[in-house]
Amino acid sequence: MVRNGEVVASGVNEVLSSNDPTAHAEMSAIRAASQALASPRLDGCTVYASGHPCPMCMGAMRMAGITEVAYAYSNDDGAPYGLSTAAVYADLARPATEQTMKVAYRPVRSRDHQHLYAEWQAAQSQS
């Protein structure tokens, strides 16, 4: 990961070695950059990846404020090796009710506690 022409972090894919499906190189680089820059915001950073980042990594990069991504191998390049996430992108492009993973909004509210997000906000203001 680069910001202002300087490498601030790097990462490697550890999915198989860690049995962690989220241990993608991009996620590792995001975590390392956040620590190195002491911020969850990575505005102005560019990620350089070997392959087209998956939707999880793209989402994390967007959430962190990363402004640019460059990659060397496309989903088409990775497909013969089982390394394409094009099907996941295609599924996510469908309306939520037509996607293969079912997601349901089931509000649960405790009458004894304030709203969960209000509790989170109060905790943030105390730290």
Automatic annotation (TrEMBL):
Keywords: Metal-binding, Zinc. It comes from the Bacteria. Residues 1-96 form the CMP/dCMP-type deaminase domain. The keyword Zinc applies. InterPro entries: APOBEC/CMP_deaminase_Zn-bd, CMP_dCMP_dom, Cytidine_deaminase-like. The keyword Metal-binding applies. This is tRNA(Arg) A34 adenosine deaminase TadA. It comes from Aminobacter aminovorans (Chelatobacter heintzii).
